[in-house]
# Entry
Amino acid sequence: MTETDQSGDDPGVRVPETEPTAAADPALGDRLARRFPAASLALRNLSRQRLRAGLATLGIVIGVFAVVTLGMLGTALQTAALAELGGLGNQVIVSPADGGDGLGARELGGIRQAAAGRGTVVPLKSGGASVAGPDGQSFAQLYGTTQPAALFGVDGVPEYLRQGAVVGDELAEGLGARVGSTVEIEGNRYRVVAIIDSEGTFSPIRPGSAVVLPPGEFVADSYSQVVVQANSADDARAIADGVRERLNTREERVSVLSLTSVLSRITEFFALLNGFLLAVAGISLVVAGVSIFNVMLMTVSERRGEIGVLRAVGIHRNEVLRTLLVEATLLGVGGGALGSVLGAAVVVGIALHTRLPLSAVFVPTNGLVALGAFGFGVLIALVGGLYPAYRAAWEPPVESLRG
Amino acid sequence: MSGDREAAGGAAHATAPDGDPPPLRLDGVTKQYAGGGGTVTALEDVSFTVERGEVTAVMGPSGSGKSTMLNMLGLLDDPTTGSVELLGEPVAGLSAAERTDVRRERVGFVFQDFHLIPTLSAVENVRLPTRFLDADYTDRAVDLLTRVGLGDRLRHTPDELSGGQKQRVAIARSLINEPDVLLADEPTGNLDRDTGEAVLGEINTIADGGVGVVAVTHDELVGEYADRTVELIDGKLHD
# Structure
């Protein structure tokens, strides 16, 4: 403001001067104000008490940030854990009951019946032996199966193993074996046809230090266990029940291990944990709503006379209400957007600096978390502004004008 | 100023046929408030007619019921008994929204302490009553401000204006809707004598355009400019 603005009360004095800079682009401002009368009034009102509006917004920022960070991290951890454990959940492992000595053709037949159409049955022979490679020698777990791919489910492992050996990566490194080189087991020489990448798989069989051979290389006729790779968790449950029904009705002949229930308990745990974290974060957002409520109450009580004028000159109650609600909602929109962006950035930062894979962060659920937190922040602000706005707009103008 | 007269919105009413009902009338209006020590009577059997083109000064000491009377005329408050008539029709049956519409379309208010919105420029303050309407009243607001001598203050906010300038913005605002009636509460209350006279001159010009003006005041100066002066003492009206 310049001194010439204070040109006194004499209406005769005209001091020519330039327009104030606040009206740098009056045309655009005017057009927007006409298009969104409530929003433009609300924005100006907010700009009047910047610090207060900023603090109320900060509450929403913190609340939304907490919800987004905890929600997205929870989802990412769950996604990562399930990606690692996922294969395990769909496996049913059938082994001889205590004291039994291997699974014969009858048991295998029962298992195949139970698993028909629900998954792949992989009979497994096992044993232990010393394995020698180009660079060294080591004791290794031996498995006999023709279907290593179904068991380990990783790239590069053949679907059907007729001859040669598939070697776990840790063992192969110790032996100095590569695809194409030869390993010697109990006097027999096998060409290495594939290396199992143990990082990409999760199985009750530790594949890193194992050697898979065709089952014909084993002396025993019976299988030490049968692994069923089910198509889904539900299939795994049905297969486990079916096997128990077929083979264990009269006496306990086989023990059936299905990790589906363990996995669903893990999932439940994550859901509970996420719910709890979100509830805690949600409380901070509710507190932010209370601060918006407080700020709006202060605002409308300070502007009581002004609101009375609006009503007196013919602005309707619902138009006043709308303006005040837009004002409260804008606090939520600003705080929610900032909180969501900050929260997402922090979660991405955590993923970049830890073993949490980024792919587990960028899942659709996390988009919903960010959007939901933003929406919740806006809603909380709107609800916080509801009563103050209603009270101000519905007060008889003659009362407001007195205030 | 002849070109500006139409901008005041009076021209249309000036041509109204004789015998038109008055824009506003109080008929035996009594207003009582329940106070701490019993009932307080703010207005007692007040009958008053607003005539087009006439400036009426309602004089009286503080607490005599002037503001209550103005609130009755502006449909901001309801009488305890008696009736308020708009163009000959009682307003008792109007809803809050309909009263708001009447205020927006027919009544102009000038408040004692200006009551401008501090975040809005002079032009925006003037077109405030029309803010939520589809039509654009910016040109009319500029005309009105130019007419009251503030053509070079269009974009100034109230804190950049002097008291007299603010009051003239308030007067321009009260005319944006081409009102039938202008209600002014102590229009010179916060102004020095020279500025007050300028504002009253402005108000007379508005009345010449066919607008019925009621100014409640305890400033003798307003009485000098008025066509008619009535006195309100203890809620009773005396001619």
Remarks:
- Chain A has 13 helices and nine strands.
- Residues 260-302 of chain A form the longest helix (43 residues).
